[in-house]
Amino acid sequence: MVGKILGGRYELIDKIGGGGMAVVYKARCRLLDRFVAVKMLRPEFTNDEEFVKRFRIEAQAAASLSHPNIVSIFDVGNEDGVHYIVMEYVDGVTLKEYISREGVLDWRETLEIAIQICSAIEHAHRNHIVHRDIKPHNILLTREGIAKVTDFGIARAVSSSTLTMVGTTIGSVHYFSPEQARGGFIDEKSDLYSLGIAMYEMVTGRVPFDGETPVAVALKHIQSQAEPPSEIDRRVPRSVNDIIMKAIEKEQGRRYQTASGMLADLYRALKEPNGRFVANGGGEDYPTRKIRSLDSENFTQKEGLIAMGQNYGKKKRKRGFAVVTAVFTSLIIMLMAAYVVYKLIIPTIVPETKDFTVENYVGRDFYKVKEELAGKGVTAKEKRVFSDSTPNDFIVSQNVEEGQKLKLGGYNIIEFEVSKGPELVKIPDLKQQDYRTAETGLRKLGLEPSVEEEFSDTVPIGLVIRTEPEAEREVKPGTAVKIFKSKGPELKQVEVPDLFGKTRDEAQKLLEGAKLVIGKVFPENVSSVVDKVIKQYPQAFAVVDEGSPVDIWFEERAAETVQGGNGQASPERMEIDKKIILDNPEKFGDKIKVKVEATPSDTKKVETVMNEIRNKDSFPVTVLIPVPKNGYTKVKVFLDNKFYAEYYVSD
User: Fold this and answer.
1) What distance in Å separates the CA atoms of residue 507 and residue 521, rounded to the nearest whole number?
2) Catalytic residues
3) CA-to-CA distance for 421 and 416, rounded, in angstroms?
């Protein structure tokens, strides 16, 4: 199904969940360009027309719910026999996954989550919708800690379908109310029972009833009493324990009768964790009392009438005064009774609701403020932001202004922007990378790279040696970062000594002292120990790289002319000036390494006639090219060790 487009707008991207009844996909709404969740009914449910009809009715009813703790439903559709619901996509985890990860939740966190769930249930009940499948699997927690109830309407559709449908929700049996387990009448109090079971699991890390089979668990819901959470974990406060035990009473009449009543106790528990304010479940408002029968009175109706007649005359005179006195006395009694009820009885049943004045919390530690507000029944939500001026975990701003009054006992949330410190970027390790790739990567991170060249004996030319600041350092966006690019090994420059008039041995010693070597010798193999150098290349005092060869010429003598392979003398040579011109000087640096190779046609051997570093502003450079008489020389030019040009020179 991934890749399929439903309704011409919902593109299925990835499967993110599923159960016995439906499969959930993450999708993108092409019309509004946002992510949504699409729940698709499994094919085996689509053949039951009654089920599909109820499914659509209930899904549309759930779509009418609008509450921050209820997953919003956007659309309901049917395409090619596929029935689906489009709802809000929540990026987070289920409460079940959160409990499994954390083990046991703190009682304050349990109350904060339960308040949000109960608030959602209250909203649904006011709209005459009973969830029927409240369980941690159907509660989603966002990254900001907001609880969202999902699957409204679907549970109702299943429970009203055929008996075999119950098997598809067997995973919910641990959270079923006794009436659901018996197949009896289900109402709002069934949702509150399931919420109580979920709270039990949050504070203890386990469900109250478990067994080897679903039937065994269902029987325990009907017959067994749960062990109080405070006996499992002594850290569970009295009020939290009492709320849970009242919510999971077996008899519906002994539980909380409304979500509003349970919500009031949840808020009060935040302020009075060890209070004894939770009323015991059950009991009748008017207990049975023994009343005397009319026949057991000491006088009959007749006798009573006679006595009344005898006293009638006396009473008639006093009737007017007695009526006025009775009315006045009744009024005083009623006023006193009302005062007693208002001052003494109501505060013990209904939590006192006072206005709470919001303070300025900016610059304070968020977690201390959160604890302070929780004690007053106000939920603090955080949104993490970068801040250069506010320390980590301290409040940057708040969405409710200072001085605003909140009514305690309601669903009050203050959202805070909380600092996570200054925004920092970690410099990656760019060693041995191409310097251009490194520049691009740093710019993508919001940094400002610059390139500097440096010699390196280990890093090839053009690759990164290091950065400054160094790798793994955390810096602010916009920080300047130097990239050190390798120029390869450093070649030291030396000056060519003057060899004119020196013998071969003298020339060799001078060259070795200058860390140079003898190159080609002309004429070849004919010089003697007394012959003097008459020419050299590179010329005296030229600056070249260490280790460069220096060609030398000795004076030729006719008696020692070398014979060629055919017995004839080697052809004479001439030197022709040739200029090297830069066609694109902008591509070169201030200094350019020039190497010229010549291959004369008489010997077919490659000779290096220039190997120097020249300033760019010294171009064009003149080179002496040896050319045989009646022959030619092939010339190759290399600039900065790269091929630049090739041509032929003839006499």
Assistant:
1) 11
2) 133
3) 15
Same domain, 408 and 503: no
Domain holding 399, by residue range, is: 355-419
Cβ atoms of residues 267 and 377 within 8 Å: yes
In the β-sheet with 533-537, what is the strand arrangement from edge to edge?
517-522, 549-554, 533-537
542 and 642 share one domain: yes
Note whether 104 and 252 are same-domain residues. Answer: yes
User: What are the start-end ranges of the H helices in 292-447?
Assistant: 301-340, 346-349, 366-374, 435-444
Q: Are residues 404 and 435 in the same domain?
A: no
Q: What does the alpha-carbon distance between residue 110 and residue 270 come to, in Å, rounded to a whole number?
A: 10
Closest CA to 131 of 89, 172, 76: 172
* Residue 222 and residue 127 in one domain: yes
Q: Express each pLDDT in 614-644 by its tens digit.
A: 888 888 888 889 898 888 899 999 999 899 9
Among 437, 466, 486, give the residue marking a domain's end.
Answer: 486
pTM for this entry: 0.45
Q: Write the pLDDT tens digit of every residue in 321-362.
A: 555 666 666 677 777 766 655 555 555 554 455 678 899 999
CA dist 187 and 128 (Å) reads 10
The segments of the chain whose pLDDT lies below 50 read 155, 157-171, 282-316, 350-351, 558-570
* 491 is a domain residue: no
Q: List 643's β-bridge partners, or say none.
A: 638
DSSP 158-216: HHTS-GGGGGGGGGGGGG--HHHHHT----HHHHHHHHHHHHHHHHHSS-S---SSHHH
Q: Check which CATH number belongs to the domain holding 83 and give it.
A: 3.30.200.20
- 307 within some domain: no
Angle between helices 238-247 and 107-126 (to 10 degrees): 40
